[in-house]
Amino acid sequence: MKVSRMSETLVKNYYTGYVRKEWRRLIKDAYHRLEFETTLHFIKQHFPKNGLLLDAGGGPGRYTVALASRGYDMVMLDMTPANVAFAKRQIKRSDVQDRVKDVIEGSIVDLSCFDDNTFDGVICLGGPLSHVIDKRRRDKAIRELVRVAKPGAPIAVSVMSRLSVLVVELTLFPQEVEMPHYQKLLNTGDYRGQYGFTACHFFLPEELRAAFDDKGVQVLELVGLEGISSSHRKELNRIARNEKQWKIWQATHLKTCTHPAVVGTSEHMLLLARKL
Ligand SMILES: C[S@@+](CC[C@H](N)C(=O)[O-])C[C@H]1O[C@@H](n2cnc3c(N)ncnc32)[C@H](O)[C@@H]1O
Fold first, then answer.
1. What is the pLDDT of residues 109-163, one digit of tens each?
2. What's 3-275's CATH class?
3. Which residue is closest in CA terms to ligand 1's atom 7?
4. How far apart are CA 167 and CA 232, in angstroms?
5. Which end of the chain offers a freer environment for a tag, N or C, measured as fewer CB atoms within 10 Å?
6. Binding pocket residue ranges, ligand 1, CB within 6 Å
7. Whose CA is nearest to atom 22 of ligand 1?
8. What is the pTM of this model?
């Protein structure tokens, strides 16, 4: 089997086993809500107030439901059938089925089910692009995300960060720095899904920006979604319990999360672009 097929199967199998966990992931505590709420904050800044959005790699549908509730018309697509089935149920349960025009099983590498210039905005969040291991296919996925956006439409893509995953090796899995996969991760950002997590490409910030440079977009900004709180889950959850301190920390986060020194070390990086 080709490597790209194998990693696709690995990714599908992984997410099939984590549907409910994925649905809870973005709201399970203040630390995880930081990724969700910071993403929504920047969508609010850069996206039109209404229109038709594509949620590509939408997983169990957390952003589709949130944005449909805010008045957007949504189309969701994901590669994992179990996520697609779960998202359909959540959309009904959340009573936003009138706003959600379609939920499709498919890959971001081939969006041929959509015409050019269809969407008023495109989102691809929480790492679907990181799960496309082959660089040529990743480039194709980016071209597809741009192709289906209308000229002038915003595109928001978030991926997993290489520098941050190295910190995770230090804090949670120090024994892994002796293993063969560690050097590959350090030097290329590629992880084939041998231990724990599934196949993933972890990005450097300059690499993420460069990937969009020649794709017919203007890159507007990069954001570190967990920002300076990245890898400080316990401490962040503690400060979130104090209303006054939490307000100040949230403001600190928003003031610092686009700083170049912060973006690359954040667990998730968000790129905002506009189709030319
Ligand atoms: C971490 S989840 C993120 C889900 C959602 N966007 C969120 O932020 O909650 C990653 C999702 O990407 C999907 N995915 C991975 N590779 C994909 C591909 N090539 N095309 C479409 N979806 C893909 C997986 O099935 C999974 O649902």
1. 999 999 999 999 999 999 999 999 999 999 999 999 999 999 999 999 999 999 9
2. alpha beta
3. 126
4. 11
5. N
6. 11, 15, 22, 26, 57-59, 62-63, 78-80, 83, 107-109, 125-128, 131-132
7. 57
8. 0.97
